[in-house]
User: Fold these one by one.
Assistant:
Number 1:
Amino acid sequence: MSFVEYGDTIKDGDTAIVFLGHESMFPVKVQHGSKTQTKYGVIRHSTDLIGKRYGSKVTCSKGGWVFILHPTPELWTMNLPHRTQILYSTDISLITMMLELKPGSIVCESGTGSGSLSHAIIRTVAPTGHLYTVEFHQQRAEKAKEEFQEHQVEHLVTVKNQDVCKNGFGVSNVADAVFLDIPSPWEAIGHAQSALKIEGGRICSFSPCIEQVQRTCLAMEEHGFTEINTLEILLRVYNVRTISLQIPDLGKAAEDNSSTGFDSSNQSNQGSLYGILQQGTAQFKSGVPLKEMVGHTGYLTFATKSLF
Amino acid sequence: MEESAKPGLRICEGDCAVLKRDEVFKAVLVLRRRKVIFEKQWFYLDNAIGHIYGTTFEVSSGGSLQPKKKMEETTTETKEAGTDNRNIIDDGKSQKLTHDDIKALKDKGIKGQEIVQQLIENSTTFRGKTEFAQDKYIKKKKKKYEAVITIVKPSTRILSTMYYAREPGKINHLRYDTLAQMLTLGNIRAGNKMIVMETCAGLVLGAIMERMGGYGSVIQMYPGGGPVRAATSCFGFPESFFNTLYEFPLSKVDSLVSGTFSSETLPSEPEYNVPVEEESNGSLDEKQTLIQETEEESSTEAVMESNETEEQETMDLAAEDTEYKESKEKGNKENIREKQRKQQERRRKLVETAALLEEKNADGLIVASRFHPTPLLLSLLEFVAPSRPFVVYCQYKEPLLECYTKLREKGGVINLKLSETWLRNYQVLPDRSHPKLMMSGGGGYLLSGITVTVEKVQSDASSLEAQKIEEPTSKKRKLQELHC
């Protein structure tokens, strides 16, 4: 297993995802002799996990079962230990595409935070690219380094513990793309500019507040960035439900019963828009929006550094 | 395989490039002495060759491109401005220059920048406008009179934006941020073995190939006579990227699943069935596929209720059918031999592709087509290894509702999620930041999930039943809902 390559079977030392049910999962470090408690009972790593195929159903001691999944940056994002607020896959997707990341890209990022975006960037730039990630919080930087090692991607990433606003990224004219998720990104635009390749590249700044965005846009303009564009992306999830709606009784005359479109006794209407299960109700499938959704994560500001 | 900085940096003859003016893009092939029409202007790309990608050019008279120096910001010496618009009256008399005057200026070869300056000087109301309104005025006039274009390197970002703006019907209205979600949710990366089924002109395929960087393999499933890759060719991938690109006809999928597959009949190849009657000049094969493609296209259009106007404009690259020209020039006999050789080569690759699929160990499945997703998913998921992601795009929500239900009934998939994304652009100016007036009404829907092993012995339903018994009732219902 590695976060940049699929493996077929679960091995000692792997980070696997234990899937209990929708939205209910957690990561586990596979170790010989180790045990993991779930609500369905104990999973014994040596017998239940090691050697099994990823995607297998594993029966726990109480008889319930779970699936063991191969880790991906997306599953990691859903399960990682939060040390900070993190970026989720919806924003990450847009960032990756708009920064034009691909295998071989050199990327600078700050801050590292909990490493959610870092894992996604590493996945995309592997096997020939590199991520330089800068985090001003020492413990977070160290923890991130450990995780990259555990996930076998340490050769693709350099973690630095410094303040990007003061000391920059520690590299110059190498990056194809720069990503900023810091409290005052406008202070780091100059450093971002010099980290990018001479011939140019892309930059993205993520900020929750519009005031931050305004200052950042001004700074980008001052540093000669072009194509400055601010946008926001929201994920709308739908629950798939079968819904039955009652047909109101409008007091129709008895003889009209057979001609009404909603009458289940009418055979000719079986193929109609409404699936009729029982008298007086119409059944259909619907994608029901969640009662509450994330309405704001942050504004994404993209820009291009170009020679001209 | 990787694009080292040096060779891809400059615009070369034969490159696939993208012209850009403000938010408008157009993919072109860089050729000498070839007239290009873009945004109501015509010009030749000859002078652009040798310049660095990202250079902005000015179109001068005679259609030649001149690189534009770093923006000599239009002088903002007119710092005189009004406070509000109470004195601005719309009587159509504020501009003293007439249409003919402006046309005369243009004909004299006066630069766009100069024309804008003259417009400002001859506007009676400009000084009375607020500073903000002045900015807006200048920006608007610049856009109209300054003939500048930028030449950029193609990428998924640029091509998906271009297609969505210009020809959404060709890509089933797949918005670029939705495509971005697909690439991430599908865990597309170097080294994967991906199955792709798309009818988005090859845009989704191209996006996947870009993310894989020539490492790993892609199997494109195609309907009809052959895979459509018009948009794929716009990416300008190196030749090596196509060595690991395979294609497989959808019409053979069922036989492959049931184990009755044979390579003997390729879809829509009349010359195979009647090899002797080949007296035409050999362009039959190409023509045939062409007809089929146009048929497909027109039927798509009918569904998409769209009226593409500038179809050829983006499709300039596709028109470049070198194969067609080649085969026309060749002699008849040689032609037939060549054809048979190609035929054999095709069959060899088909067998190879079938073998790749039969390993049933693909690292993911991406579907973005105009077809109903359910049958595609039910069949193609057979070829995907357990614990791998899959993503299906559909322009409409309802087919995905059905697909969701059918997949749950069949089993072997978890973490099913139906979603869409909303994308909102912002105007950011000091003290004047707000969402833009217009936003996209919809970018399509995605159904994503993860494959798992299917146990043949114990049916999923019974084990779910067993688990439910242990759970308290409240939990039970929840579990049933969640275990999807």
Number 2:
Amino acid sequence: MLEKDVLVIGAGPAGLAASIEAGKYGASVLLVDLNMQPGGQLFKQIHKFFGSSAHRSGTRGYDIGKQLLKEAEESDVEIWMQSTVIGIFPGNKIAIEKGLDSGEKEMVTMQAKKIIIATGASENAIRFKGWTTPGVMGAGAAQTMINVNHVKPGQKIVMLGTGNVGLIVSYQLMQAGCDVVSLIEAAPKIGGYAVHAAKIRRAGVPIRLQHTIIEAKKGADGCVCGCVIAQVDEHFQPIPGTEETIACDTIALAAGLKPTMDLVKLAGCKLTFNGPFGGYIPLHNERMETSCEGVFVAGDTTGVEEANTALEEGKIAGISAAEDLGLLTADAASDKRAEIWDRLHSLRLGPFGERRMIEKEVVMDEYKERIGTPSPIQ
Amino acid sequence: MALINTGYLEYEELESIQTLPSDERYAEGPVAIIECVQEIPCNPCEAACHFGAIKIGEPITKLPTLIGEKCVGCGMCVARCPGLAIVVVDKTFTDTTATVAFPFEYYPTPVVGEERNAMNRKGEIVCKGKIVKVVNPASYDHTPVVTVEIPKEFADEVRTVERI
Amino acid sequence: MCLRVDHHVILDCTHVGDEVEITVDGKVIKAYEGEPILAAILNAGIKINRYTVKRKEPRGLFCGIGQCTDCAMVVDGKANVRTCITPVKAGMVIKTQDGLAKGE
């Protein structure tokens, strides 16, 4: 049976950072991901990242992705793409449906001393009449189409949601040559950063606050030809008589993300519900270890944040795995982690970050209380 | 804060949050206007300025401050700001006109000599503008900085040009 | 209809793969080898990938990253292929999927 020191699941910023870090200290690392290309969502992030100039801020997401892939290669990380983990068993045995170059799949079982789960997050849907009509899609799907596949999802777009995803994707749709008709937001204020909203506004695109989409209109071809919006009351309920119809061929939904928990659950990690982080997340400690011994988590899987925090958490998971493999002394590992926690701290300041900083502490306190010491996969 | 509700700032509101150049500083020539008003974790503008005219310090969520006397209006910060929230305004361009240099990441990039509608923070057309400079070196990493000439009275209003 | 992004200030939109032909429901369309099947057919104006099992409702691109299965089609006789994460190969024969289409 194939054996590796570390199996990392998910080749986004967290998984890549974890792989690079563990590889750097001499661990043999296998990184698997179900997508065609590694990088997770980084290659669709064509904007310049915020963050500290000491850590690649001001760099576009895809350039950070390229850099990570180069580092992964230098650290001898083995990468399997179009490969899906379908089983995690006691004794850290893993079943993987491996994608072959021919396009065929092959079942592989392997054993990993340490497992790092970095499966990211998926988009929330919002249900309204006609929400399954072709032309209604996640904002991330629209972003993938323009920035990775270079095909517009449509010509006239209505965006639901004004968090950073809604604002950034709207901007990028315009950069790709789409017409963004309007942004719709149920809350009485814009959710994302003001600088992102300012870009949308000075491009002349209206942002309709306290409104929601109540229906996607279906054309003769069976696809979206418009949407009906309405004003909402303080309980976010549509107010009758305020309906308006907007012509569009695409409705993009930016209603937040939730952590992708399938493999975390499969491994049997204990969970906690955390609203601000997007739903159920695995309890973990400051080493990013879950309730399962030798199973670590990083990135959006541990609570939805952003690429910068995912990268840092990935590094912590990689360092902790290397430490448990005896490749790093406890002191060295703990010093390195402290440095990274300082950086994470600075990324979680300000009116947008504070809440996440507090919630992260809540999660780790709960870990101490409920778990204390992790136990092997059952 | 109106910005959170509308997505744009009025000049007066900006003035109450950010340090804007004094009239005397405007009279000396081009100067950066930093329209960054929320404490977000971001500081590349500080490192972008070779003249030490932008200060953030620690923690990096602090708002940037412009030191008007040190700013030479070079525009390095305009291309580096990930939020595209900095412009350079020159109220001394001619007796009757001013220029605004802004980041513009839409296709097609304006060309020198072209006339385009100049727009304010709300996306309203304010006046006609003439493109007088377009800079897009590799160091700007695909953020062209476009300078538009407009009547002087609109210098505090115009922040971009229309997409075509 | 052409929905290709041909000009962009930031992105380099030159195609990596060769231009090839694929067949969708009997119609020949142009595609680039290696791009997701979904991208090629969306550019050709095809937005419906499958019809649901019971109510025969149309479905199309929804997540774009292989999670939701709304873009599943019958590809070279194989049903339930997620077209958003399956690369184009020259000569592929693709069909709109009806319900759980068993393949061939």
